[in-house]
């Protein structure tokens, strides 16, 4: 009953936020043309992996930085790591738990975020790790009292017993259905998570809080038109967590998989695009601004997302509100930036807002980049059937029954995929 109540509550919020006409009809998808993946913006053909890596890939990465996710500011921030908790044989003996503070500092000040790391207790040697962010706090992914409560901003949610923008013990484990910790550990994987609000609280205050102010130049009070928004700084922070994982002898740092759901699925894709150290990338129901093609204008559109969440992308991206046809890129190009690393895109049947068809097509149209590496790619433009995953060494995809969520079914596919292509 609680899950049903949460779903109804979130649906009511969605209706109030997005009260405008939205297209879900394939017959009303506008005619559109995707930018050629293997032709540069100056018309040069790309014919091999070397030219891709030296010319086209940097060009695509740069246009996403400047016109959508935002450029990283030049103001430098140092990152130090402090192990604040190290407990063995927790969760009935199956897990070792660590909590690591990521301490960001420069002449502007200091800011701290916490990485929670679970490792399988009975596995010898370094293990591969799934790394991602969560929405309400590290303590919400599992009810264990060993997990510290965060002191930073939290979004009020009466169903999760979160009020006055603070958390307490009552919200322990409220999102455990999305994070089957013991199940992941039992397959020989570790799990690292960061509460995204520790990095940047997810509301529009023109970036006066969180980590952003450390990057401002003297006299600067907000990012410039092309500098990053929340997704950009969340993605950058995942790379800083990877910096720590590379120092941990119990982690196989060549096999870290970045994972994200919804807006954090957009974040995982952007993190994987920029940081080629990530061995694999998972996008779960990421929709507009993530895996879904923008030019289709199905479900959430560029204008809707920019109006509802003006802090997610850079200000330049608003130029494409109701103007997707002028985009010099689309999300198949974002997926291509993962090549030759494997990427998994997942959708849900009832999540029309995220445009499942558009999510599949972005992976399908990313194929030319992977073919430069002689890799197997999706063989048909037709989406797979419900609950029938289609996996390849390049782009894998499933659409499951159900709604916008992360389920045990999703994790079962991700682990099967990782066992085959990463582990």
TrEMBL record:
Residues 225-368 form the 4-O-methyl-glucuronoyl methylesterase-like domain. The keyword Cell membrane does not apply. GO terms for molecular function: carboxylic ester hydrolase activity. It comes from the Bacteria. Keywords: Hydrolase, Serine esterase, Signal. The keyword Lipid metabolism does not apply. This is 4-O-methyl-glucuronoyl methylesterase-like domain-containing protein. It comes from Membranihabitans marinus.
